[in-house]
Design brief:
Elements: H1 2-16, H2 22-25, H3 29-35, E1 40-41, E2 47-50, E3 67-69, H4 76-81, E4 90-92, E5 98-102, E6 115-119, E7 126-127, H5 130-142, E8 146-151, H6 162-178, E9 189-194, H7 196-204, E10 228-231, E11 247-252, H8 260-271, E12 276-281, H9 304-316
Parallel strand pairs: 6-8, 6-9, 9-10, 10-11, 11-12
Antiparallel strand pairs: 1-2, 2-5, 3-4, 4-7, 5-8
Bound molecules: 2-acetamido-2-deoxy-beta-D-glucopyranose (3 copies).
GO molecular function: hydrolase activity
Pfam families: BD-FAE
Protein name: BD-FAE-like domain-containing protein
Length: about 325
């Protein structure tokens, strides 16, 4: 109960400083640390909400040492899937899952009442935290949408998605519960998944039940997203969604890590169930993220955020296209 209150206090503190950029929040770390028994930080010092109270991570694993490091060019997954990746940080050995809030303040003229949980990739062995997490949150904030970057448990040794999916289920439930406090519409909470993170998203939305025992009232909230975006997502892992939602898919023909056939097959499945769009680019490979690191090389594919913005405005926010400010 004490920890539960700590989480609420933390959330309130974050809400009151919403509107600051992620970098500005850096300076508030000391303040948050006093509010919570659990102090988690991302590599830039930003406060991360724990997903579960201390000692209540389901089947908590021990003996792994969490590490955040510059991309390791010798990592086989990284080398194979995103050889151009050299910027930012990766997370290894995540055993205490969390959520990095990146909120847009209600007073911001760009404010929209939707939020997206960002699920980075990394082949279930690490998290591409900067490129497929924080930078994506910054992009969403720039178009008025709040973001929550999911720090899910890796490595997933069995790759049966138990840990990563239950982390996403819990994150979705927490964000829904807190939605009114942040001025968010609890029916406009979606997910964006990159690579393995896309696999977590599509797997998660095909499960009716939560994969963990109820921890607190937040778990009365649905864990199913209202919309989803998959960017070079491993959608081959997906089943039929429990509640079909508008879906945006961006992929390239030259993806050797998650073959484009996965995107085509998932489009075939989803388009029968809900508004679904599929963007296939001829070049760009895998792992381009928001494209900040690869702007010249893969120019066309780097329009995906513009297309995703239009999807969000039309399928989620229901802003008539002629009125959307672009
Ligand atoms: C992950 O934890 C294991 C076990 O402690 C350790 O051997 C390994 O070096 C860690 N990985 C990284 C990248 O820190
Ligand atoms: C998945 O992994 C979890 C945790 O290791 C294990 O308890 C569960 O039985 C596994 N499920 C399947 C279907 O293999
Ligand atoms: C919340 O979002 C849902 C789904 O888009 C919409 O039907 C509803 O009107 C919204 N509620 C408010 C108060 O805007």
């Amino acid at each position: 109960m004490v920890l539960r209150l700590a989480w609420l206090a933390l959330a309130t503190a974050v809400s009151s400083v919403a509107g600051l950029t992620a970098i500005q929040q850096l300076n508030l770390g000391g303040h948050f640390a006093q509010e919570s028994a659990v102090s988690l930080r991302d590599p830039r010092g930003l406060e991360i909400w724990p997903l579960f109270p201390t000692g209540e991570v389901p089947n908590e694993r021990f003996g792994l040492e969490e590490n955040h490091v510059a991309p390791n060019m010798k990592d086989l997954v990284g080398m194979f899937c995103a050889p151009g990746e050299t910027t930012g940080n990766w997370y290894y050995n995540v055993t205490i899952p969390g959520l990095l809030p990146m909120l847009v303040d209600k007073s911001n003229p760009l404010f929209k009442d939707a939020a997206v949980i960002v699920v980075p990739g990394g082949g279930h062995s690490f998290l591409a935290w900067t490129k497929e997490g924080v930078e994506i949150g910054e992009w969403l904030n720039s178009i008025g949408i709040s973001a929550f970057v999911l720090k899910y448990e890796v490595p997933e040794t069995t790759v049966n998605f138990t840990r990563s999916v239950l982390n996403l289920q819990r994150a979705m439930s927490l964000v829904r519960e807190k939605a009114p406090e942040f001025g968010l519409n609890a029916s406009r909470i979606g997910v964006i998944g990159f690579s393995a993170g896309g696999g977590v998203a599509v797997r998660g939305n095909s499960l009716l039940d939560k994969l963990y025992d109820k921890v607190d009232e937040a778990d009365s909230q649905s864990h199913l997203p209202d919309f989803q975006l998959l960017v070079y997502g491993n959608s081959g892992q997906g089943g039929v969604p429990i509640s079909p939602m508008p879906t945006f898919i961006a992929h390239t023909s030259t993806d050797i890590c998650c073959p484009v056939k996965q995107a085509l097959d998932y489009y075939q499945l989803m388009s029968k169930l809900a508004p679904t769009e599929l963007h296939i680019f001829p070049d760009g490979g895998h792992g381009f993220g928001s494209c900040r690191s690869y702007p010249e090389k893969w120019y066309e594919v780097c329009t995906w955020p513009d297309r995703a913005q239009m999807f969000l405005e039309q399928q989620v926010l229901h802003i008539p296209s002629q009125k959307s400010k672009r």
